[in-house]
Design goal:
With about 300 residues, the chain is α/β, with parallel strands linked by helices. The protein is about 45% helix and about 15% strand. The chain is built from eleven helices and eight strands. Helix 8 packs across helix 9. The longest helix has 21 residues. The chain is globular and about 50 Å long.
């Protein structure tokens, strides 16, 4: 009888420990969901013959996520092989698509092609070969209609983003959208909210293109959209540039190099970590970042 009582007391004690341990790593904690260090990968054919080099660079530079462009000229088996190898290194791969023209209703077929290709690919791939997210780069502000018929363009852009977001959810994939740091300064045509607030509310996460080469500037430019993301319970990734820019040297880390960039991003991380939406960095883009590292500066 005594042994049975002791056994019951042991079960009760073990259950209590199990219950209490469930509070030690809450969902959404930094431990459960580490911040991203992502990069865009537009030159998809490179994965055919350079996967080992790409993934070695990823390992050496702490990359957690590739935004890999959908390219119908690259056969699915190359995607499968690359993603399988990336998965083995705990690196996620999101399918990347986008163009300014994707804002237009006349280009809806391109969005359909992108989503259909992604669906077909996911269905044909093994779990360790599948994309784990969708990343879109749709920037209507570079089109001439931004100056000539902005209201109509914004309306079309909203429809395109909704279409992509709905498609991503049908595929059970989170969707991240690139946005410029100044998007909060423009309102929707009906003045109901800022354009950035609308897109953040529509997708799962945003990559804020805060292209500057000093920590304080990067943080301050990204802050308005980060605050909107926090209020909406969404994630915000801060993006920086490594490509040479004709807009000025202050736009990019091209001149200063990768070591300087890493120091600045460490400072940004310290400042931005107080914001619950902040989920790491995205570096534009793989080829130019690698060239910076190869220069040894």
């Amino acid at each position: 009888m005594k042994k049975r009582t002791n056994y019951r007391m042991y079960l009760v004690f073990a259950c209590c420990l199990l219950f209490l341990s469930s509070f030690s790593a809450p969902i959404g904690s930094a431990e459960a969901q580490p911040k991203q260090k992502a990069t865009w990968f537009w030159d998809t054919p490179l994965i055919k013959d350079s996967a080992e080099e790409i993934l070695s660079f990823a390992s050496e530079n702490g990359i957690t996520t590739f935004y890999l462009q959908m390219n119908r000229d690259v056969r699915p088996e190359y995607y499968k092989s690359f993603i399988r190898q990336a998965t083995a290194q705990n690196i996620q791969v999101h399918v990347l698509g986008g163009s300014p023209s994707w804002s237009l209703e006349t280009e809806r077929h391109r969005l359909e092609t992108f989503l259909n290709w992604t669906r077909d690919y996911q269905e044909s791939a093994a779990p360790e070969e599948r994309f784990t997210g969708i990343h879109i780069d749709v920037e209507p502000h570079v089109l001439k209609e931004w100056q000539t018929d902005r209201s109509s363009l914004i309306h079309q852009w909203q429809n395109s983003v909704r279409f992509l977001a709905d498609g991503a959810r049908d595929l059970n994939l989170p969707i991240t959208a690139d946005i410029p740091f100044w998007l909060h300064t423009y309102n929707l045509p009906d003045n109901s909210m800022s354009m950035s607030n609308w897109i953040i509310s529509t997708v799962d996460a945003v990559a804020i293109m805060a292209y500057r080469d000093q920590a304080a500037s990067i943080y301050n430019l990204a802050l308005p959209e980060m605050n909107e993301a926090t209020a909406l319970g969404k994630q915000a990734i801060i993006a920086v540039e490594t490509k040479a820019s004709n807009e000025g040297e202050f736009i990019t880390f091209y001149e200063e190099g990768s070591a300087f960039m890493n120091k600045q991003l460490t400072q940004v991380d310290s400042m931005a970590s107080e914001n619950t939406s902040f989920n790491g960095f995205a570096i534009h883009e793989y080829r130019y970042w690698k060239a910076l590292v190869d220069r040894g500066i």
